[in-house]
TrEMBL record:
<dbReference type="InterPro" id="IPR050273">
    <property type="entry name" value="GppA/Ppx_hydrolase"/>
</dbReference>
<protein>
    <submittedName>
        <fullName>Exopolyphosphatase</fullName>
    </submittedName>
</protein>
<dbReference type="Pfam" id="PF02541">
    <property type="entry name" value="Ppx-GppA"/>
</dbReference>
<dbReference type="InterPro" id="IPR043129">
    <property type="entry name" value="ATPase_NBD"/>
</dbReference>
<feature type="domain" description="Ppx/GppA phosphatase N-terminal">
    <location>
        <begin position="22"/>
        <end position="301"/>
    </location>
</feature>
<dbReference type="InterPro" id="IPR003695">
    <property type="entry name" value="Ppx_GppA_N"/>
</dbReference>
Length: 313
């Protein structure tokens, strides 16, 4: 079975066998959400890029014998007036009926995927905050692993692409632009905190998506992606702030040369790092635990659970 995630910045695939073993996990930066914050429409070239990658993924799924799949679109599709055109093209490319997830559903699936394999001591320690920093939105979910029905979730329109297009397009961004972006992020996350249960200081904040993975690689000197060097690694709030300052002071060309910078990430990493830094500050957390298990794993888990559900009313 397979899960496909069409996000604002990247398009991703996860295929597992019937026992849940991972057969392939792929990510390609397609920037589906290019300009959506301003135009409220998906650009034709962005649709074309994303659908081309979906065709590649469909071929991989066929090769691996996938018979069941979920294809989810998130923030960019939620915002776009012409999302139906993309969904039709995605369905034709993959043979899978696509769905646009609500922000809360996205957050809950991310929580399900990120917490299923948490170390036992963290899973038992109390509520976990999962922060999924996407291109157009950030999803926050708080709950206890294994208790999905009790998870509280919020989605906010803060993402690395959206913030870059709104505030940080100058290369490098000015201090005034960074200050304005930071004030916006803090205000929105503070509002989210008012409606979410809050883990105790020193609790567990699990960070998902490319921003978090890239910051861990930069901080740990991992110049080529290796899952074991990123998954369940911690990055402190101080390290996040340090890398935010460093990257914000560099032009995009210099960021691309940083050992560990993921391809397609350099122009939006400052916006993503800013969201993570403020999430740590607003929720009073000292560190972020990076997880390479996320909404894709949640989508696959939902397929496995539906398969296991007894027939009948």
């Amino acid at each position: 079975m397979a899960a496909l995630d069409c996000g604002t910045n990247s398009t991703r695939l996860l295929v597992v066998d019937e026992d849940g073993r991972v057969l392939t996990r792929r990510m390609t930066v397609t920037r589906l959400g290019q300009g959506v914050d301003r135009t409220r429409r998906l650009a034709p070239e962005a649709i074309e890029r994303t659908v081309a990658v979906l065709r590649q993924y469909a071929a991989e799924m066929a090769r691996l014998g996938v018979t069941r799949a979920r294809l989810a679109a998130t923030s960019a599709a939620r915002d776009a007036e012409n999302a139906a055109a993309f969904l039709a093209a995605a369905a034709e490319a993959t043979g899978v009926d696509p769905e646009i997830l609500s922000g809360e559903d996205e957050a809950r699936l991310s929580f399900l995927g990120a917490t299923a394999q948490l170390p036992p001591d963290l899973a038992a320690a109390g509520p976990v905050l999962v922060v999924d920093i996407g291109g157009g939105s950030t999803e926050l979910a708080v709950g206890r692993p294994g208790e999905p029905d009790a998870v509280r979730a919020v989605s906010v329109d803060l993402g690395c692409v959206r913030l870059t297009e709104r505030f940080l397009a100058e290369d490098p961004p000015s201090a005034a632009a960074l200050g304005a972006a930071r004030a916006e992020v803090r205000a929105v996350l503070s509002t989210a905190r008012e409606v979410l249960p809050t883990p105790a200081p020193g609790g567990t904040l699990v960070g998902l998506a490319g921003t978090v993975s890239t910051l861990v690689m930069l901080a740990r000197g991992v110049d080529h992606y290796r899952r074991e060097r990123v998954h369940h690694q911690r990055i402190s709030r101080q390290e996040v702030e340090s890398w935010l300052a460093r990257l914000a002071g560099e032009p995009v060309a210099a960021r691309r040369r940083e050992p560990g910078m993921v391809e397609g990430r350099a122009d939006v990493i400052v916006g993503g790092a800013l969201v993570l830094a403020e999430a740590l500050a607003v929720f009073d957390q000292a560190a972020c635990l990076a997880s390479e298990e996320d909404i894709l794993d949640g989508l696959v888990a939902s397929l496995r659970r539906s398969q296991a559900r007894p027939a009948g009313p």
